[in-house]
Amino acid sequence: MRRQGASVAVAAVAALVMAGCTGTGKADEGSSGGKGEKDSKPFALSLSPAAGAKDIPVGQKVTVRAQGGKLVSVEASSPGPGKLDGKITQERTSWTSTTPLAPGATYTVTARGMDGDGKQQTQTAQFTTKAVGKDQSFFGEYFPDKGTTVGVAHPISVTFSKPVKDKAAVERALSVKATPAVEGSWSWMKAWDGRDRVDFRPQQYWKPGTKVTLTMHLAGVDAGGGIYGTQERVVDFTIGDAVTSVVDVNKKTLTLSRNGKKVRTLPVSSGKPGFETWNGTMVVLGKVPTIRMNSRTVGIFGSEAYNLGAVKWDVQLTTSGTFVHAAPWNAGKFGRVNGSHGCIGMSTSDAAWFYKQVGVGDPVKVVNSTDTVTPNNGYGDWNVDWETWKQGSALS
User: Fold this and answer.
1) Is 343 an active-site residue?
2) Is there a catalytic annotation at residue 21?
3) Cα–Cα distances in angstroms (integers) from residue 267 to residues 96, 183, 247, 254, 378, in the given order
4) What is the pLDDT of residues 309-322, one digit of tens each?
5) Of these residues, 154, 217, 341, 343, which one is catalytic?
6) pLDDT of 329-369, one tens digit each?
């Protein structure tokens, strides 16, 4: 990481000199012959950056040293970014930070040391890092949200506010813990709007009931070219029931199962020739009870144009505009004819039932159609085979 500004000299946070007497000793020549005194090595703790220092570059390491004794513990943290990780040497004479400093943060360092007589000393100091402007900082927009329950196909997805040149550095700052444990991998892509995005998914769908924690240690991470992260997040979420749906374009049906047990098969009408519904696995992105659908927003004009108000029971599957929804204007086609512009239509009553059954993160797999949905069009991650997916990691 590039250093910025002048280096900060090591300065003593505190120095306590301990004096001790020897048990026996030979008197100095010319003395009165009493027992000689011998000073023990002074004990002191020192910190770099110095106590009270300001505008410290985020690329600088924090060090604490014990002179004439050993370190017992070192704690460094900031109210926003949180704890700064570090490592004490085997000899316990110095501690060095191992995670980056966050920009514009005030850190408090508490060091505990022990002198040769076993007496402990505690010293506390503060310093402030240099702030960076919006042009020099980035953050990640993440899903799922904290505290939510999502379906078994929901990946962890982070889209970044600035281009990420050093993807390996950013990926190292992201970690995932799951209970029960899973084999998983990050994979980079361009989001639908062109921003850099990285998704994490297991090799197979999450198991229902899995507890997942995403940890983002982005504060102080250089994404390349001096663009620094400002974000520290711990995001916990839970995996719900396995609610899976399969749309067969040939049969014109949607079959929904819950935890492996078939619940119901509905007659549907999918995309007509020239407007075929995406093939492959899509993931529920959200639901709204009513929406206006205007074909201009998805690039359909001319004789095929439409502008429909109050379309009911809308379940979104892709960023490009694929929905499962009520389509009463196509009554008579459900189960018989594929007549939509790419969405999956059904009767109003069936659409209301499906709407209540599914949630964000549930997979909807379309078979026997054309043009497999891409990973960045919503969460099309599951259409990439596992070996290829792993190769998309910057650390592979």
Assistant:
1) yes
2) no
3) 64, 37, 10, 6, 25
4) 789 999 999 999 99
5) 343
6) 999 999 999 999 899 999 999 999 999 999 999 999 999 99
